[in-house]
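Propose amino acids for all 124 sites.
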């Protein structure tokens, strides 16, 4: 499910990052330093995406709802791209999120109210 979600995010934002693995490994995500994972789960056999770091990359598209399936995310930096559309409601699932930067994009609509309920979110 995590691999599917990260692939949907990459596809929606036109990133050149595709994994054909069924599970993330520390090599597949930490090698780029753009997608970081914590692979300490299940005796180091299960990885969770903790960081998406894609500022100033001329990304375009919409943030897909599948991003909400990456429940281990702590940091998302998508600032200064060409991302449009609304902030997906699925971000409410990211209860560990501490840092979110979507500034300098072409997003529409209001900032969702649920961000105020995310106690771990320090930077918005």
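Proposal:
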């Amino acid at each position: 499910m995590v691999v599917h979600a990260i692939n949907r995010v990459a596809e929606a934002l036109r990133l050149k990052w595709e994994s054909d693995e069924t599970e993330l490994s520390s090599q597949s995500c930490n090698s780029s330093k753009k997608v970081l994972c914590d692979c300490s789960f299940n005796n180091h056999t299960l990885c969770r995406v903790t960081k998406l770091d894609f500022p100033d990359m001329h990304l375009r598209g919409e943030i897909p709802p599948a991003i909400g399936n990456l429940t281990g995310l702590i940091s998302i930096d998508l600032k200064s791209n060409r991302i449009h559309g609304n902030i997906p409601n699925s971000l409410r699932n990211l209860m560990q999120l501490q840092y979110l930067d979507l500034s300098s994009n072409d997003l529409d609509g209001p900032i969702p109210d649920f961000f105020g309920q995310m106690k771990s979110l320090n930077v918005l």
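Residues 2-12 form the longest helix (11 residues). Residues 2-117 form a domain with the Leucine-rich repeat, LRR (right-handed beta-alpha superhelix) fold (CATH 3.80.10.10).
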